[in-house]
Amino acid sequence: MAGITRFGMEVQRWRRQRGISLAVLSEMTSFSESYLSKVLHGHRSLPLSLATEIDTVLGAKGALLRLAEREEGLTRWDAMRPSQLPPALADFVGRTEYLRTLDTSLRIATPPGSAITTVIEGAPGIGKTALALHWAASLVERFPAGCLYADLQGFDVEQPRQPDAVLDEFLGALGVARAAEDSLSQRTARLRSVLASRPMLVVLDNAASYEQVRPLLPGAGSIVIITSRVHLSGLALHASATHVRLSPLRLHEGVQLLGELAGRARVAAETANAELIVRHCGGLPLAVRIAGEHLATQPHLTLREMAHQLGPQSSRLDFLASADETTNVRGVIDLSYRALKPAEATMFRLLGLHAQTPISVGAAAALAGTDIACGTQSLSALANSHLVESSPGQRVKMHHLVQLYATERVQAEETPAQRDGAVDRLLRWYCASAANATNVLAPDWAGRAIAVDTAGISPQQFAFDDHAGAMAWCETELDAIASVTHLAATRGISSAWMLPSTLQPFFYLTKKWSAWIDSASQALHCAKAAADDVGVARCQQNLAAVLSELGKTDDALTLLQDATRLHHNRGDDEGQGWTAVTLGLTYTRIDRPDDAIAAFTEAARLFERGGLELSVAVVHAMLGTVYGRVDRLDDGIDCLHEAIRIAKRHDSPLAESLARHHLGALYLHSEQPQRALPQLDRALAIRRIQGERWGYADTLVVRAEALTAMGEHELSMECLREAVAVFDDLKDPRGLELHATLATNPSFLDTEP
């Protein structure tokens, strides 16, 4: 039995106030008492004519009529409640933090008259629609008036759907007729009018632009969910939308999804291989789903076999493909690529030449053969399309599956000459930028042999005193430099050896042993492959320098002797000078001071002939130390003071700190710790400011020895502890030696429980 309607309850209240029974009300209107009872109790529909008469008789002044109109409208709408939301994925997994963020977006205040709008954006195949439908399914019950859904086909092969066509579908679903002559704005107004009285959940999937969705946005009360593979900035500006950017699945989420598709027990039995499959898929949900489908349809295929099939990058996209574009990794990326403007598409393709390491804006601009402003614009467009993503230090990187697609496009659409030209520009940009950085660390070091043609590129620049910036750049670009060197060498560019060779001053200051050996070995291999005698000599000196520091002095001397011969034959004074410096250091390490003095003296002569004063200062700093070892104290002190004078004249804190460190060590060697301490303190201050961490720790060790000689054992231990912390952080083996020293000192033992 139907209960009394709200309209009936209001009529009852008005009758009591007026003292009118139902029978009297029937006599005052044109309806029978029985019919009135059935209408008021919901057994008959409510005609507006009846409501009008009752409102007039009871003197409700339109209140009862308005209530009847609302009830009649709701009754009509209930009969055609749209429920257009597609089914959510039954095997949806993870995304917990995103669902939490989406729920939070519902509590964010919106401007008056605005719907709550959330945009889920991200790269092709990242799972935007799956997340949107999963979340929307949890919201449907909040909207008894229904849900509207449209796939806007923003990036389909055909043209994106026009908003007027979608509006017609929405209005039709709502039972609202339109006149043929209605404009887009009139239809938009009609949609918003309807949704104002019956708020709904509106899902707009695969949007291409703000202009495409703007006419479809309702007013206050409704919730709008939009998905897009581009960033729709207009929605943030004009609709106060919340943007949620999706990232790849976490490893455990990818494994869980693989288990839902291929069988949980099957995946649990090969967890390590399942994780490898997810890594090969880059955590991209579409790729994981394709892999899971392959497993599900091939029950005898082991996860180990699939991981092996996915291993080769050259064929990975072929494996992650199907006849259906919507389940094809290459196909969904292609849709985004085809939407790019020509300059953006060129930048995207050429990025496919570069390895998966992040790349700076300057390097990308050089690769594409454009200026910084245009390069920045193209990269911004690619980031807006989620084909690249931002990385620390104003750099960008690609998801590895996107990078594989870009590599395919550059091979298909660029000629060999165009590809070689792009790699050449990239190599020259890195060479020139690295030379600029190391020229701050060691002025005049590179010389003419590593001169770089900067035509058509804008290399990174550094202020002459920006030691910290130069060091940070080298640190950040280490992996990229190794990758670019390999890329240039594989394309037969003969100057590839220059790039890793330019980093020698950085490695000398930081003592990154493993990276230094790898870099020097790579450079020497490139120089030999190019049959470049100058390059071979430079690279032999570089490799010999690190081998000498690591105690492989015999190998170092062999390389240095051959490098000296090559430099002499080619007339490379700078290269021969630095080879002589490395010889001097090696002879010093194996206790051949006379040979060391001869080598340093020859280096000074070569540098003086070339007018390289700062290089002379470095040689004097090292020569002064050797003089001290052969009891030529005055000569050593004179050399070191001359080095300090030159360094200060050229405003070179690095050369000054080196000379003061050696002067302090020389005073300590001659049993003058009181004179050593001020020199060491000044060296420490400079090295701290310049960020020269290994040198700073080295000076701390000498200072600790000076303090011990002065009887200041506690202060000495403090210096050693600080030095240990630095060496440990740098993973330098000297830290182990100092740990042993500290552990055997009673003052170091910790008595705390």
SSE layout and pairings?
Layout: H1 6-18, H2 22-28, H3 33-40, H4 48-58, H5 63-78, H6 96-105, E1 116-121, H7 128-139, E2 147-151, H8 163-173, H9 184-197, E3 201-205, H10 210-213, E4 223-228, H11 233-238, E5 242-245, H12 251-262, H13 264-268, H14 271-280, H15 285-297, H16 303-310, H17 313-319, H18 329-338, H19 342-351, E6 359-360, H20 361-368, H21 372-384, E7 389-391, E8 395-397, H22 400-413, H23 416-441, H24 467-490, H25 498-501, H26 504-510, H27 513-529, H28 533-549, H29 553-570, H30 573-589, H31 593-609, H32 613-629, H33 633-649, H34 653-669, H35 673-690, H36 693-709, H37 713-729, H38 734-743
Parallel strand pairs: 1-4, 1-5, 2-3, 3-4
Antiparallel strand pairs: 6-8, 7-8
Features:
three-stranded antiparallel sheet, mainly alpha, P-loop_NTPase, TPR-like_helical_dom_sf, 753 residues, Lambda_DNA-bd_dom_sf
Estimate percent helicity. 55-70%
Query: What do the pLDDT scores average to?
Result: 88
Distance between the amino and carboxyl termini: 81 Å
Give the number of DSSP strands.
8
Any low-confidence stretches, pLDDT <50, length ≥5?
748-753
- Determine the number of helices (DSSP H or I, runs of at least 4 residues): 38
Based on helices, strands and strand pairing, what is the structural class? Answer: mainly alpha
Radius of gyration: 38 Å
Question: How large is the share of residues in beta strands?
Answer: under 5%
Largest sheet: 5 strands, parallel
What would the principal axes of the Cα set say about the shape?
Answer: elongated
> Strand order across the biggest sheet?
2-3-4-1-5
